[in-house]
TrEMBL record:
Keywords: Cell inner membrane, Cell membrane, Membrane, Transmembrane, Transmembrane helix, Transport. This is TRAP transporter large permease protein. The lineage of its organism: Bacteria, Pseudomonadati, Pseudomonadota, Betaproteobacteria, Burkholderiales. Belongs to the TRAP transporter large permease family. The complex comprises the extracytoplasmic solute receptor protein and the two transmembrane proteins. It is found in: Cell inner membrane. Its main location: membrane. Part of the tripartite ATP-independent periplasmic (TRAP) transport system. It comes from Ottowia oryzae. GO terms for cellular component: plasma membrane. It is a multi-pass membrane protein. The keyword Transport applies.
Length: 430
């Protein structure tokens, strides 16, 4: 059987299993293993590739950042940041929505995980927003959208994975490059959420008292110091990205136990169990996606597809639009980590053909993934926030897609004005 036919079988099997409801990790691993067997590429290489794909030192940062995010959620630190953000925003229509997004952005400098931030902020903000008269779908959409900025604002688990797959893009450079787009995305969402609240006359927190600024600042100072310590240690070279993740965990435990005194032994045990479960899911996807990647690389499938695209789309602008469209559609059905593994082998040859900067391209991909985290039908962040809001995914459709349009303006800006992404890493010497 020819390699072209085997490549067709690989993708047909992938799509069939996905539509059949098979978990994505199993779909990637099973499709890849079947093709490895048919192509006689050596079944003995499968377990070796699975092991090698996750036995990389930089990947230790993933479970550590996951653990750090859960610690800060359970320690009650999100509540102190909500009061501080509310003291800045003040009581006005759309103020609670803006506060939720602002707090999620700050948490982005701690956990690097959208679902973790959505859970921490949602537990505090969604009940307040519903009490203030916001529709449940609106509250869920706003918190999920705010949480999506966390994979852009460093530290970011997505950037760690991208750097592993594209070694030319270092983690510190990606962290620096993601800062400005992450902040711009957050500001766009704040503007969008306030506009939606005022246009539809939802929410009325004008009668709510404004928390005193200095008291709120004193309560939140330990939480606000976390991003400064983590990113400052990275910038000065005191720690590596992996060590920064461990530093975040130690700092979170110290603040939760000694300052807020909210972490009991029972809570710590539950935190460790939850972090293990989430990390296991992520690393399982990474491990089994490597089998799919080995099969497709051996067959040259993505190389043929890349050559086809380059041969039929000569315009750089049209190619960028096509890539963004592919990623936005994929984000409706596939989680972010899998998007990297499925599409990067296709996009790397195209990136090399047009001589695109791998750091800039990594930020574009991550921006697309961030958008996918909060729009239906999959929207991982939305799954989390809908549980807190006790509402259906369908109720978020209008609000979520309206916020997608605001954040998409930042995607367009970063796509066609690369200096927005690259000026900070260049200024820092990366």
């Amino acid at each position: 059987m020819s390699y072209d036919a085997l490549g067709a079988i690989l993708f047909a099997l992938f799509v069939f299993l996905l539509l059949a409801g098979v978990p994505l990790a199993v779909t990637l691993g099973l499709a890849g293993t079947v093709v490895v067997a048919f192509a006689d590429l050596g079944l003995s290489s499968v377990p070796l590739n699975v092991y090698n794909s996750i036995s990389k030192y930089p990947l230790l940062a993933i479970p550590m950042f996951v653990l750090a995010g859960i610690i800060f959620e359970r320690a009650g630190i999100a509540g102190s940041m909500v009061r501080f953000a509310s003291s800045i925003v003040g009581p006005r229509r759309g103020g609670l929505a803006a506060t939720a997004i602002l707090v999620a952005m700050i948490l982005g400098g701690i956990s690097g995980s959208g679902p973790a931030a959505s859970s921490a902020v949602g537990a505090v903000m969604i009940p307040q927003m519903i009490k203030a008269g916001y529709p449940r779908g609106f509250a869920a959409s706003v918190v999920a959208a705010g949480g999506s900025t966390d994979i852009l604002i460093p530290p970011s688990i997505a950037f760690v994975i991208y750097s592993m797959l594209v070694p030319a893009a270092s983690v510190p450079a990606l962290f620096a490059a993601g800062m400005v787009p992450g902040v711009l995305a957050g500001l766009a969402l704040i503007v969008g959420s306030i506009w939606l609240a005022r246009r539809h006359k939802v929410g009325n927190e004008a009668d709510e008292p404004r928390p005193p600024f200095w008291k709120s600042l004193r309560e939140a100072i330990w939480a606000l110091m976390a991003p400064v310590i983590i990113l400052g240690s990275l910038r000065t070279g005191v720690v590596t990205p992996t060590e920064a993740a461990v530093l975040a965990v130690v700092y979170g435990f110290a603040v939760g136990v000694l300052v807020y005194r909210s972490l009991s032994w029972r809570t710590i045990y539950e935190i460790l169990v939850e972090a293990c479960e989430i990390s296991a899911v992520i690393l399982t996807i990474l491990a089994l996606a490597s089998v799919f990647a080995v099969a497709s690389n051996a067959l040259g499938t993505f190389e043929h597809m890349a050559n086809f695209l380059v041969g039929h789309i000569s315009s750089e602008v049209l190619m960028l639009l096509a890539i963004n469209l592919i990623l936005l559609v994929a984000g409706m059905f596939i989680d972010g980590i899998s998007i990297f593994f499925v599409f990067l082998p296709l996009f790397i040859p195209i990136m090399q053909h047009f001589h695109w900067d791998p750091v800039w391209f990594g930020v574009l991909m991550t921006l697309n993934i961030a958008l996918g985290q909060f729009h239906p039908p999959v929207g991982l962040n939305l799954v989390v926030t809908c549980k807190f809001a006790e509402t259906s995914m369908e109720s978020t459709t209008y609000w979520a897609f309206a916020l997608v349009l605001f954040m998409a303006s930042v995607l367009a800006l970063c796509t066609f004005v690369p200096s927005v992404v690259m000026w900070l890493p260049r200024a820092l010497g990366y």
